[in-house]
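Chapter summary example: a protein plus adenosine-5'-diphosphate.
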Amino acid sequence: MSLIELEHVAKSWGDTTALHAVNLRIEPGSFCVLLGPSGCGKSTTLRMIAGLDVPTSGAVRIDGRDVTHLRPAERCIAMVFQNYALFPHLSVADNIQFGLQVRKLPKAECQRRLQQAAGLLGLEALLERRPGQLSGGQQQRVALGRALVAQAKVCLMDEPLSNLDAQLRQEMRAELRELQQRLGLTVVYVTHDQAEAMSMADQVVLLNKGRVEQSARPREIYARP
Ligand code: ADP
Ligand code: ADP
């Protein structure tokens, strides 16, 4: 069974229609990239999978259950944004653990997950720093760390690498993909960068004006005129 399923999902605000009857299936453990120009509906799709927005019609299901019927804690979804959404006044450790502390997880468990994520992401030596004392790539890892400690099944990423320079972006693509495979995470990743989509995806979903134009493996997606 697909882990994420969108069935005839449409979304409108007044006379602006962001999505028209989108059908989409995403397999567990896969890396799915939503690709398309600005305004085509990528972020709206992501927000609907996260349960942050409700479809005007149609349904979004995770593990067969309608997301709008799940409480946030049951959704097992983490989001990573392009601006990282880190708290500047908190240490790296507290930024990573923030969600766990809010959920009142026992201290020892928070600590265990923090150390594990820091190890995976190579952040062990930086835990006492503030975000402002980190490079862009390191800040990105902190944002990822926050998703990892939440032990989310699904990680939604909206242009997470777009603030990085070209060299670092290249490195982070490989790093992110490696991590996703090692952890068996299901990732839905938004970008308007075709090269990025092709190099990372198991499944590329090409959106255009709120419709799915193609959904296929990267080598099966053909360049359009
Ligand atoms: P993308 O992420 O591909 O750039 P979006 O999903 O952000 O596209 O937006 C798709 C369309 O929906 C755009 O025309 C955008 O202006 C519109 N839109 C998105 N969110 C809202 C909103 N809250 N209210 C009104 N229109 C919106
Ligand atoms: P992105 O850069 O990811 O495409 P945007 O910057 O377009 O996202 O949108 C950021 C926020 O503003 C989102 O919450 C989106 O729903 C909202 N938004 C986007 N377009 C509009 C719009 N035309 N009217 C009202 N809200 C919008």
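Key point: The longest helix spans residues 166-183.
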